[in-house]
Design a protein that fits this description.
By secondary structure, the protein is mainly beta. The protein folds into 3 domains: 1-30 and 384-613, no CATH class; 36-142 and 271-311 and 324-335 and 616-657, no CATH class; 153-267. The protein is 6% helix and 29% strand. It has 6 helices and 46 strands. The strands form 7 sheets. The chain has a 17-stranded parallel β-sheet that branches. Strands 3-6-15-18-20-23-27 form a 7-stranded parallel β-sheet, covered by helices on one side. Strands 8-9-12-11-10-13 form a 6-stranded antiparallel β-barrel. Strand 11 (231-241) and strand 12 (244-248) form a beta hairpin. Helix 2 (60-67) packs antiparallel against helix 3 (72-81). It is globular.
């Protein structure tokens, strides 16, 4: 499955790293210190998406979708009537549909394919209590009352059990909590007070904050979590013994402590679970925003096409996740907003954004003609963003920007994007790992404000950058440390204080001091950047591993062998014929463009999402879109990516609106 390695490696270490996750060391063992990483193998739906084995709903209400109008009312009637673990199917056709909320667990809404079933959304709903301009067209959400800071939430003091990895904590109250596996156990949000000044356990170390004071951020942040408590991990309650609560997963962050008054809060009811939306197009151009996932665990959005096709400066989100855990968003195509440019773009057009979400898996998606794609945007952590392809991006990073406070312990793996940024606009970020990503600058994206490959700004500390490939004519040098925006088009831009409005912050020497780099390839180190098996651009440089720092040091890896993945134990079916791993220093003669304008040294293949996008035809239903909207089918693009299950009902006639 793996490309041949052009250098010697330790076979013993490699075999250890590739063992299954269960009952063994993590894939990153021997490379990253345990204090700087998490077990990402459990991100997403536990046990993966189950709907492929579910039967079709055959109630009268479900059959009505094939024999009568497809409307918000008939969809909700069908879902309400569906037995547990069944699929509500929508036939091929284009339908005008008002906003609707899926609040029933153990049911899937499935189209005939994103290229065949299209919902033109005509209205949006209230946002599930989020307020402001939030107005999604479809909700996946529980009927639980109370979300976040706007009422109906039970709170408790968290009085014991703070060590990283701990699975038993003590709360002052367990009122309303229910124990059970992920999905059927209560979700609780664990938090603590922000740091009042820079650095724990010492100055220049973890600075967990989201204020616009004390040199924390430009504009302040934390819009949805409890005020002044911008560090959150979402966990499931699996057992209750008095005031002792067993949780899964264990505590991911190393800085929980009694001095910060740790606490917990939860909604009054169980999360939506075992539910999803599959294989259809959602066009929300005429309505508010896209799909919102709220108060949910073990839910998914799979194989869909989500479109906004209109020029506007209004705020839009294609996919927004809130107070949820173990959610999977895989193999979707996201388009819009077109018409944006360097001088004209929405203040917020994020394809994916989240608030108070943990163990999410955002995987194998295509972002086309978006302002920004992956934007974690308030307290969250321990999530995985993997194998996503971004093209025709409009501004800024044209890929992924950590825009929140505070986000910790997440993994970016295998993405093909222009740029990654940990910004300082709304708060700080820590212990983020970038592994086997392909950064190619302006090769197929614009760059209006920043042009680096990996920008790690002030108060972004203890990052790990391992096995990435970075090359583009828009990059100007290997590293800028404490530089201004005028010279930020480097592979690594470290400690920059940014160019955002608000309260000024200082540059930060601790970004580079705490950063780990190992096995990355870049065009400036290379003497043969367009070679097919270039070894000269790979950096195994001991001084780029923070072995000597006092807190959260990383030992020098004992070998140059890297695992194929930091979260996958084997090649997934949706990879098809694409080599696994597709990107990295151990990949040779990769088929991604390897030219003077986008050199790779041969170390990058086109990831599945890119190969999919480049195979798509224009959709004739959108003849004037610019760039053209693509006709997308996950079943066509990816091998075994979409659970087919039984065929839909026959001998029924759909009414196409």
């Amino acid at each position: 499955m793996r490309s041949a390695r052009p250098f010697l490696c330790s076979l013993a270490l490699a075999s250890i790293l590739m063992l299954p996750n269960s009952g063994r060391a993590q894939q990153w063992t021997g490379i990253i210190s345990p204090s700087r990483a998490a077990d990402w193998s459990t991100a997403g739906v536990v046990g993966d998406i189950p709907s492929g084995s579910w039967t079709n709903c055959t109630t009268a209400a479900c059959n009505t979708l094939f024999g009568g109008s497809v409307t918000a009312t008939t969809i909700l009637n069908a879902i309400s009537s569906a037995p547990a673990n069944t699929v509500v199917r929508i036939p091929a056709g284009t339908f005008s549909v008002g906003a609707f909320d899926i609040t029933k667990s153990n049911v899937v809404l499935r189209g005939a394919g994103a290229d065949q079933t299209k919902l033109n959304m005509t209205s949006c709903n209230s946002g599930g209590g989020l307020g402001g301009s939030n107005c999604p067209t479809i909700h996946l959400m529980s009927g639980a009352t109370g979300t976040g800071h706007f009422g109906g939430v039970t709170t408790a003091n968290w009085t014991a059990g703070y060590a990283q990895g701990t699975t038993v904590i003590t709360l002052s109250s367990t009122t309303g909590l229910v124990a059970g596996p992920v999905g059927t156990g209560s979700l609780i949000m664990l938090d603590q007070s922000d740091d009042a000044s820079d650095g724990w356990p010492a100055a220049g170390d973890i600075y967990s904050c989201a204020s616009a004071t004390n040199n924390c951020s430009n504009q302040g942040g934390n819009n949805y979590a409890r005020p002044g408590r911008a560090q959150v991990q979402v966990v499931t309650v699996t057992a209750i013994n008095g005031n002792q609560v067993t949780i899964t997963p264990g505590l991911a962050y190393p800085n929980w402590r009694s001095s910060q008054s740790p606490g917990a809060y939860w909604n009054n009811g169980l999360p939506l679970h075992n539910a999803g939306i599959e294989n259809l197009t959602v066009d929300f151009t005429a309505a508010g925003q896209g799909i919102y996932v709220m108060n949910a665990a073990n839910v998914w959005v799979l194989g869909n096409r989500v479109i906004v096709n209109g020029v506007s400066t209004s705020e839009t989100y294609h996919l927004f996740a809130f107070q949820s855990a173990h959610v999977t968003f895989r193999s979707n195509y996201f388009y819009g907003r077109p018409g944006a440019s360097c001088g004209n773009f929405p203040l917020a057009n994020y394809v994916y954004s989240d608030q108070e979400v943990s163990d999410a898996l955002i995987e194998n998606n295509v972002g086309d003609t978006n302002v920004d794609f992956l934007i974690p945007n308030d307290p969250a952590g321990r999530n995985v963003f993997a194998y996503n392809f971004v093209t025709n991006g409009v501004i800024g990073v044209a890929g992924s920007q950590m825009h929140s406070g505070n986000h910790m312990m997440s993994l970016w793996e295998g993405n093909n994007i222009a740029s990654f940024m940990g910004d300082v606009t709304h708060g700080s970020h820590h212990f983020i790992t970038l592994f086997r990503n392909h950064f190619d600058g302006t090769a197929h994206n614009n760059s209006c404000t920043t042009g680096f490959a990996m920008g790690i700004l002030t108060n972004n500390r203890f990052f790990n950058a391992i096995g990435n490939v970075a090359g583009a004519s828009s990059y100007t040098e290997y590293e800028t440390n404490l530089g201004s925006n005028s010279n930020s088009n480097s592979i690594f831009n470290l400690g920059w204080n940014g160019n955002n409005s608000g309260t000024p912050v200082t540059t930060d020497t601790n970004v580079k001091r705490t950063l780990m780099r190992w096995g990355n390839w870049d065009q400036f180190t290379s003497s043969n950047p367009t070679g097919t098996i270039d070894l000269t651009g790979i950096r195994w440089v001991s001084v780029e591993v923070p072995t000597a720092i006092t807190n959260f040091a990383n030992a020098l890896p004992v070998a140059q062998a890297l695992p194929a993945s930091f979260y996958l134990s084997s090649k997934p079916a949706w990879f098809g014929s694409v080599p696994f791993p597709p990107i990295g220093p151990d990949v040779a003669s990769g088929n991604a463009p390897n030219t003077a304008s986008a050199p790779t040294g041969g170390h990058a293949n086109k990831i599945p999402a890119r190969a999919c996008f480049e195979s798509l035809a224009n959709d004739p239903a959108y003849p004037s879109s610019s760039p053209r909207i693509k006709l997308f089918s996950a079943a066509t693009c990816y091998s075994s990516v979409v659970a087919s299950g039984p065929p839909p009902p026959t001998n029924l006639n759909a009414v196409v609106q």
